[in-house]
Structures are given as structure tokens and as C-alpha cells.
């Protein structure tokens, strides 16, 4: 039902002539319009897993994605969350050229994830990049703050399941996300499970590793 | 019948150097080839010298048996590489006089006879000239045979003796020449064994069988052998093509130190290097750049290209190599060597461009020229237990095979979440128990106290709410350089972060974070 709603929302978002990108159903409800739009920027500070989930939708649908300025980007985790590694390009340490590298990648890749350095970008640089995105119909995901973002998805915290004091392992997590669209804040919670059950006796012998299931976000009370 | 027109077979000149492997091995070991020698493979005699043969040694004999027949026998291992290497100068001397030589194996070559026969005035004199060239190259006892097709010509060469080193089988007389020879000369043991049991002992008898029956009974291979036995060898002589020297060198006098000077000085050479290839309708797909400094050892590196090199790509590779090489002295010479070439037709752009892949490649190549070859990476899954081992990164445009198979089970790797942030620089952390003491792990993998507080660099101290482990990990203990011995622990903290911590002899450090 929720997936259906997300699809309806994605279709409705075409009203202003904006193209939408295939979006992972787990994060679709967090986004205004229910889908990633091309030609704009989104900010997702606080959680790399959330950024990977945002990348996963377009990547699984066949798009090339680029990651700029994140040296610790865990490609294996990205693959588990649905990012296709054979269409993933990493520029871990662009240094001072991060903005021009991002712009060059946005020329050819439909989705680029970037983490700006601490000093960030000046308003004029941001505006230039925004016009490039509009021209090229590329989507920018920023793992940090970004002025002029279509929406800011801030991971404010969360909880872990499956781990005790001296036993268990990290098996599932709940991520609290605050979506800010033009000063309007909504809260959601995303649940990610690994589906890995090593202690169930009836489990198959080969360790099957399904990709983490992100249950559709639910609206949490303010 | 002197040409190839209208006939199935062409006149061939075969030059045979008897006992070539023995001669090559003797020259390699500095022995006299006239002494009794035998080359041995898997404990069985593979070839022997004339003196050894006279003493009763023959091919296929066990070493012990051969030594008992000829007590003074010198036994050497069979080395095909030596045969080929020793034959190369002989071949070069032959090609200086008669080009278009096909090498069947070291010691046996076949030449299309028509050309040399016309040039030297007859097949016999052409064969004599070829033997003369071989004698000058140090093979005085070579033999020559001229006949229709390579097979008959080889048999003709083998039918010679020391007194009469050339045998010419007239055109059309091949079948008569081959008829009395035993079927074993076909060199097909399975077929020969079968024919012997059927009472067919000579090539003539085999050739007399009806062609359709041979095809039905022995299949396509038997049919081909039947044609050969009838003197209708359909094989053609394909002369070897000597690869041209495509290396380009650019010497700098005086030697240059600055990268941009070298890159500028190399521009013309890089263009000429690729133009020479393009002239032969080739493109370069792998390039070896050799930087020769004024003093010290040269620096070589091979660069792959996902498509084909352009002059700018070549210059970029040289720049990157210069930046990484840290040469002690200024560069006196740069050598460009095409490691792999491909036909240009495979790399032509389509009429409407190369599609999205081409555009992506161009943009990423631009980023590479800005930041360096290693700055743009692609990721591949790899096997391993540590988080950093489970992905292998390769520069854009290069293929890298995973050093460890990703599909293997890798017992000891962690279940559950895969960490999203792999911390390659191993930042040290502090893990304390409720009493404020550092948490330690003893020799029996037991923890000294429950972890309660985590202090990671650049972050405020946080309370540990959940923890699991420590799990011991010991890898490659047999190799001190690559050995890994540590304990790992997952912790979930009050601020919502979760970490994969590791402790080895240096203390606790963060291996990865679950961002």
C-alpha cells in the first residue's frame, strides 16, 4: 500500500514539468513529491546510509552515480543498500577542486553525491552549480548543509537493534530523519534490517545476505 | 605446374635441420654436438644426437634403458624455449636471403617455392642457396626438400642423406613419392594404430581407399589425412610477419627536470608515435612509458586505456608517472612502447557518437588529468574479513582482479550491517569501563571490563549502550609482513552512532563506522 502511494506521489510530482528519478521506496516518503527530482540539490547531513539509500534508487534503475569527497565511503555497504558498483565512480579526495570536479561529473552523471569541505561553498559558487544542474538535469546530493537545497533530510539520531551488552550484533537500525522543506519540518523514521538470522536453526546453510530492507518511513509525531 | 593457380597444392621448399633440439641444447651447455647426447622429458628420451642413435638410443626410450645402451650418454633436459631462442638468429640469416619464411617448429621451416625458384633459376638451385645460407648461419648439415604441399616437401627433406642433401619431387609426382612410406609419418597415433590393424601399412594403400569410405569411417580428420597421403596437402604457406619496432624515443639534451617541460617536449613524439600506428590502421590500448634519468635505474610503468590512447592521453600518463616516480636525477630520455595494439576499425566512433559511455569516459578522463590517475576510482567487491579488505579500488580505465575471491565464505567476517564508513587511517580511540579504566583483552580473548565510554577523535565522549564481542581475528600468521592479529568489537553509543572497533598491540582504533 505504502509503495503504491509512493508511486502515485511520484507521478503527481510531474506537474511542474520536473522529471523525477526512480527512488527507493524506503526514502520516497521523506522527499517532497515522493521522489527525487532531477535538476535540483538535496542535502542529507548526518547519515551516510541515508545518502546511500538516496543513491540506490537511480543506480538500481541503471543510472551512473558519482561520489565526491568522501574517502571513507563504504562501497560494500552501498552495494548492499542497492547501489550498482559497476556504475559507481569515486573521487575520494578532490581537495580544493571539489566544486569543479562535482560540476564536471554532473555534466555526465545523473546523480552525484558530494561532501563539501568544512568551509563550504560561497553563494555564487552554489548558484553556478545550481544552474549547471538545471541545464544538465542532474541531481546533486550533499552529505552536509547546502543552501538552496530542495529539501534537507537531517538524520537526527536513531537506535540499534540486535546488540546487547556483550552479546548479539548490529542487526537492525531505526533512523530518525527530519525533512526540512522551506522551513517546514516533518519527522520520519526509517527502519533498515539486514534480514540476517544466524541463530535460527532452520536457516539455510549458505549465509544468504539479502539487501537491507528499509520499511517505508512512517510519520512520527512532532 | 609452377604456380598456385588452378591447383590445390602449391610448391613448397622445406628446410630441415636434423636433431635441432640436440644441437641447440649442446650449444647452450657448451658441449660437442657430435658426442652422444639425449634430451629427456618426463624421464623419457625425446631427442638424441647421431652418435647416441648409432649406439642404440632412440626416441621414447626410458632414461635408464638409454644409459645402459650407451654408457657415455650425456642427458640434458628438453627446453623448448632454448630451441626457439637458438633458432632465431638462424632464421634471421635465412630471411636476409629469402623472405617469407613460415616456421613449423624450431629446426623446420617451409617456404613457398615459386618466388625463390624464379629468382635463383630453378627449384634445385633455390634449395641449394637456402642450404648455403643455413650453413653460413652455423647449420652445415641442413637438408632441403621441394614438392607439392608442405607435408610432401617435409617427407622429401627427410628422405635425403648426408651425400645428397636436396631432394626435389617433381610437380604431380607426390602421390608416387609418398606411396611406399609407412602410415606412421602422418603423425596421428590413433589413426595410424587403427590403419595398422586394418592392414593398411603404407600411405599408398591408405590413399587408395575410396574417399567417401574414409570420411564415413574416420571423420573429417581422417579425410584430411587421406588427402595428405594422396599428395593433395591443401595447407598453404603463411609467412611469418616480423613485428615492426614501434617504440619511440625522445632524448632530452640537456636532461630536463620540470614535468611541464618534459610534457611539452614530448608532444611531437607522442603524436608521431600514434600516427605511425595509425598508418598501419592500429591503435594503442596499453602503453609502457620508460623514464630514463641521467643517473640511476630507469622507471617503467604500463598504463592501460579502456579505449585507445590519444596524444593527450599519452602526455597525461607521462605526467602522472613523472609525478609519482620521484626520480633522483633529471630525465634524459623517455621511451614510449606500445604494450598492446588493436585494429583501428574496432575503435572507430559511430556516426552519431559513442553513446553515454563515451561521454562519461571523457569527463572522467578530464578529472583524471586535473587530479591524477589514482584520483578517480571504481570499486569492486573483494573477499576478506576486515572492512577495508572487502572492496578493491582501481583507477578509472584499469581492470583490477580482486586479490581475494569475493564469493568464498570468509569465516570470521562480521554478520549483520556492513559499515557505511570505512576508516582507512585507523584513528585511535579510547574505550573505558565504568570505573574509568582502559578496557583490555587478555590472552584468552576475555575482556577486562564492560566497555562504557568511547572517546573518538574530533567527537565528544559518548556512553556505550550496547556492545558485542570481542571477536578474535588472526590472519596469515605464517607471513610476518601480512599477519593480522586483533580483536574486534561492535559498539552502539548513546548519541546514535555505532562503531566497529579493533584492538591490536597498538591499542584500540576505529576500523569503521555505521553512519
UniProtKB/TrEMBL annotation, chain A:
Domain of life: Bacteria
Protein name from the UniProt record: Recombinase A
Organism: Amnibacterium setariae
Taxonomy of the source species: Bacteria, Bacillati, Actinomycetota, Actinomycetes, Micrococcales
Automatic annotation (TrEMBL), chain B:
Positions of the UmuC domain: 31-153
Lineage top rank: taxon: Bacteria
Pfam families: IMS
One record GO biological process: DNA repair
Entry-linked SUPFAM superfamilies: DNA/RNA polymerases
Keyword entries, A-Z: DNA damage
PANTHER family with a match to the protein in the record: BLR3025 PROTEIN, BLR3025 PROTEIN-RELATED
Name used for this protein in its record: DNA polymerase Y family protein
